[in-house]
């Protein structure tokens, strides 16, 4: 590497050397030199040589899983099973990732995962995030990065770490487009279409993707609820709830990058998402005292979101020093309307009818701005920056009962709740290559958070202000000419409650079950330590441990002495996990490869809430195996299986499950077209079984979803995708791709 005027230095042992310079396999300079003490070899003359470069085609397949100093990279672009699927399919198949209760994303025993797209954080609630991931096509994704211990430059939010979705970018000048159509058939059918357009010139880099989905599915929940009194009396309830869902969603992702000069570029990126989902359901409940009821719920859910980022990137010098400025605006609206009719029976005879309805309107705005510097020097690299983010949320919940042939407002259940949060942060990170074998990085992030919850209905305010420090550290040891690498990392992170967890409004599923938030909910804090080794640049083994204080989770509670159970959120104790993960790829023959991921950990939860004291322990393991068969250059097959043992999540004791899937991928029309067929959850064994045991109550439920699916997908690429890049300085386009990701 030279400086801006071509000077360079070499540190060598004494001896005879040949100093040679070449470009594109053509020798430009060659000289024998004798090295003893410090010496100046003088200027090296390079004569202009005209070189004609022909077309170069490189054929290769990336490893499915790669280990880097701070993350695991899951390269999905060549997976037949994920072709035509969604980003959510890709995430839940990433190494170390599994789904907890309610499809919550967990990594190595921790929940509270944040998701980024091309290093830009998605500011969404958990339900909105899952819906958005299910609307994003996997065909536009290059890789999934699992960052369990993020560095200080990332927000400390998300105690399980960060999942970064890296989208595909155009590498050559010209334009290209793609279009795809995917059809699913399960109990119900789904149709998803998507299209993308990419344009790249000397100054402009534009990429976009649009998805339209018409998805029909269901959710069936079988539930039992048993109450025991101090006198020994017991009441048992069993219910079956069936919800039929239809979702029509639109999703658009776009980024426009303009190169001002050799040192600067500006850009705008954003996403737009909308989802209209009618979800009518019926619930049949029977009790041991010969009473029963039937509930019909006309449920309408509407989600919309748009996010816009403006950024400016500038090279401060030719040695790699950079400055990045970013401003972001995100808005969200949620409409959740329910119309509930309950018919009650005694010994099978109709008794009475109850009608109620609710209207929930949620509006949120998030403003943020950040300034970041990356300053590489001769022996160290410094990264530093600051960020401020402000969130403003309004919630309006109206609850009505039908009485005397008219709808009457229920003042006890209606609520208006506003929430404001300001988070100011700064960070400093230092990295250094101490020797050829040892690399070190350490950082410190400070965040000052101010929150205020205002209940307009009860005229009460809840304020919570705090300052916290979040250190991170990484060490990588890679002996020269050895076939192994060691990585040691540590981080402290925070998991702030999502805004829906804080809202005290009450919504009903049936007369026996309701949901409410908790405005007094406090954040939890997690310390994580990992030691990882990579053998032969192929096999990855990781030992990890993490502990969480002020752990919060969803929990069901009996309402007084009634038969109603209300789900809420609270800080219920602490937990820790100890375990290991190993990734073992096996190349059986040239056309058959197997990728195996095995995760095992010990879970411990020390929980305390009201009169409930529990210390829960469990050994959990997860096994993913994927077989890829390359029949020829155009046809590949994949057969995968996954088993997850029983696990814990707070008071929830979650049962085991397994599933198997298969896929075939066929390339057509000289690689411009791709036809794929896949079958998911072949034996229909992917379901959630949950049990909760309290001193005076036992509750369990089994959730079934439309997971056994047969999928047919076709995708076609348009445009001059094979256009050669005539620029000899290829690094210019590479820099623009990197800047676009930043």
- Intertermini distance: 24 Å
Query: How much strand content do the residues show?
Result: over 45%
Q: Give the integer mean of the pLDDT values.
A: 85
Biggest pleated sheet: 30 strands, mixed
Q: Based on DSSP secondary structure assignment, what is the total number of beta strands?
A: 40
Give the C-alpha Rg. Answer: 29 Å
Q: Helicity, in percent? A: under 10%
Low-confidence stretches: 722-742
SS-derived structural category:
mainly beta
Number of contiguous helices:
4
Shape: globular
Structural commentary:
This protein is mostly beta strands and 742 residues long. The chain contains four helices and 40 strands. The model is unreliable at 722-742 (pLDDT under 50). The chain is globular, with a radius of gyration of 29 Å. The strands form four sheets. It has a 30-stranded mixed β-sheet that branches. Strands 3-4-9-10-7-8 form a six-stranded mixed β-sheet.
Care to give the gist of this entry?
The chain is mostly beta strands and 742 residues long.
Indicate the topology.
Layout (H helix, E strand, L loop, with lengths): L14 E9 L2 E10 L29 E3 L4 E4 L11 H6 L4 E3 L5 E3 L5 E5 L2 E2 L4 H10 L5 E7 L13 E7 L6 E12 L3 E12 L3 E25 L5 E26 L4 E15 L2 E7 L3 E25 L6 E25 L2 E28 L3 E24 L2 E4 L5 E19 L4 E18 L4 E18 L6 E12 L3 H4 L3 E5 L2 E4 L7 E12 L3 E20 L6 E25 L2 E18 L2 E19 L4 E10 L2 E3 L2 E3 L2 E12 L4 E8 L7 E7 L2 E9 L3 E11 L11 H11 L1
Parallel strand pairs: 7-10, 27-30
Antiparallel strand pairs: 1-2, 3-4, 4-9, 5-6, 7-8, 9-10, 11-12, 11-40, 12-13, 13-14, 13-39, 14-15, 14-16, 15-17, 16-17, 17-18, 18-19, 19-20, 20-21, 20-22, 22-23, 23-24, 24-25, 25-28, 26-27, 28-29, 29-30, 30-31, 31-32, 32-33, 33-36, 34-35, 35-38, 36-37, 37-40, 38-39
